[in-house]
Amino acid sequence: MVSIKTEEEIELMNYAGSVCYNLLEYMENCIKPGVTTKELDTIAEKFIRSKGCTPSFLNYEGYPASICTSINDEVVHGIPSEKRKLKNGDIIKLDVGACYKGYHADTARTYKVGTVNKEISDLMKYTKEALYKGLSVIKDGVKLNDVCTAIESVAISHGYGVIRELTGHGIGTVVHEDPYIPNYSNTESELILKEGMTLAIEPMFSLKGRKVWLLEDDWTIVTRDGSVAAHYEHTIAVTKDGYKILTGE
Question: How would residue 230 be classed by pLDDT, with cut points 50, 70 and 90?
């Protein structure tokens, strides 16, 4: 069952989303060679709580940190650690969530650590482009699969792997609500979008193969072939004529 949010509920999510956005902006100055992913997690938790929110991910289904910090071939759900130091040439995906008065927002961004090569830089560029291409078709009355197809089209045009085991999702009073939102065209996403639906759209592409492994920590998901992956995400509200980004400025 996909919930429809009231204007008041969307405003609460919008506040949580603005906290997430500002956190990701702040993190631009924190990500550099030598920083540990645990340090980033500590900064994020302090930031989220200072704005009157709580970290959405902390203890969610047992997750032990406030944000996800996924480096290079780690696609998502990398657990922050004092042992993981960033180095020049890495990319890191930060996935953050905040809860305000019982309502969540969820967003992700991929960052360069120092200087990366053009192949990786392009992967980041076009994964982000896929996010906005998916968003561009959203409005009341559109079939959800149109969004999925738009996202996939960018990956196809550049030869990237689309991670199929991981999807976008509905969001609201819990972090993951219906519907699931694959990043590829499919026959299951027949839902018709309605004004007031709130969705987390999040393309995840790899440079090569699409297959993934779950590591022994039961959280971190990596590409099977070791290729680098990128991830971008926004929480949005469907409007009559389009959409509103809740995790933006």
Answer: very high
